TrEMBL record:
<dbReference type="GO" id="GO:0004888">
    <property type="term" value="F:transmembrane signaling receptor activity"/>
</dbReference>
<keyword id="KW-1133">Transmembrane helix</keyword>
<feature type="transmembrane region" description="Helical">
    <location>
        <begin position="231"/>
        <end position="251"/>
    </location>
</feature>
<dbReference type="InterPro" id="IPR038050">
    <property type="entry name" value="Neuro_actylchol_rec"/>
</dbReference>
<protein>
    <recommendedName>
        <fullName>Neurotransmitter-gated ion-channel ligand-binding domain-containing protein</fullName>
    </recommendedName>
</protein>
<dbReference type="Pfam" id="PF02931">
    <property type="entry name" value="Neur_chan_LBD"/>
</dbReference>
<dbReference type="InterPro" id="IPR006201">
    <property type="entry name" value="Neur_channel"/>
</dbReference>
<dbReference type="GO" id="GO:0016020">
    <property type="term" value="C:membrane"/>
</dbReference>
<feature type="transmembrane region" description="Helical">
    <location>
        <begin position="200"/>
        <end position="219"/>
    </location>
</feature>
<feature type="domain" description="Neurotransmitter-gated ion-channel ligand-binding">
    <location>
        <begin position="3"/>
        <end position="168"/>
    </location>
</feature>
<dbReference type="GO" id="GO:0005230">
    <property type="term" value="F:extracellular ligand-gated monoatomic ion channel activity"/>
</dbReference>
<keyword id="KW-0812">Transmembrane</keyword>
<dbReference type="InterPro" id="IPR036734">
    <property type="entry name" value="Neur_chan_lig-bd_sf"/>
</dbReference>
<dbReference type="InterPro" id="IPR006202">
    <property type="entry name" value="Neur_chan_lig-bd"/>
</dbReference>
<keyword id="KW-0472">Membrane</keyword>
<feature type="transmembrane region" description="Helical">
    <location>
        <begin position="170"/>
        <end position="194"/>
    </location>
</feature>
Amino acid sequence: DINSQILTTEGWFYMTWIDEHLIWKKEDYGGIGTIRVKQDEVWIPDIFLFNSADVASIKYNVIQTKLVLFNNGWLVWVPHILFKSICELDLTDWPYDQHNCGIELVTWYEDGLTINISADSKLILNHYWKSEEWDVLETESERLSYDISVTNIHYPDITFTMRLRRKTSLYHYTVFIPVTTAVILNLLMFWFSIRSNVRFLLSSLSLLLLTIILLYLGLKFSFGTNTMPYAVRYISRIILTIGLTLVWTTIAHNVQNLNIQLPDVMRRVTATTQWLVVYSDNENSDTIG
């Protein structure tokens, strides 16, 4: 969600650990080497989403899946998760922007002396359902720890990072092509006389088209002042330029239709300027000759 800057991740969280209290010999139990147990029947690590954007997703939003327990004490648990994590976006280069969004998992009640968590691999995207707007370029995992200086206790932390890139094909048709068309229409107005109504029509169409595009972008995204995209700034400046051009063209058109005599001061300035231009031309011609 771009407006609220929340990354929603849904999938399956593969976890394994060993519990020394759950070891048995297969020979003593008829050769049984694995069993399925419920979540409330065994110990489960207290891993929470640290950068959660929703209180409901601080812990796993799990379906009641069972765990697989092996006779050597190993447990395998693959719960369903729905994480909503905070991901700060910099939209300056929109729509060619790329972002690094992380899922930060920590142990909440138990410190690093009691439990040690680690990531054996990156995010597995074998069954990734491709997004219509984003491409996942790469993923990585990193293990860190939070140290509390007073008690000299550290809490392990694992961060899974995804590098996302926005797909731009949609905005080529909805933004860039209309903006280019509006700019071309505005440039065509200079081919017509200032008395021509086509000049006003082209400027008005360009102004209307760019205003609609800017309103569309404003409704679709919630741009902050610090992350205002260059594309939005460009469109807003074009709108300002076309608006000023339209106002100036209207004034010039009305002045030409009026028979107004210039004041004495303006006529003197015009005459002086004309004399300077003529004198400069004569001086240059004498020098050349």
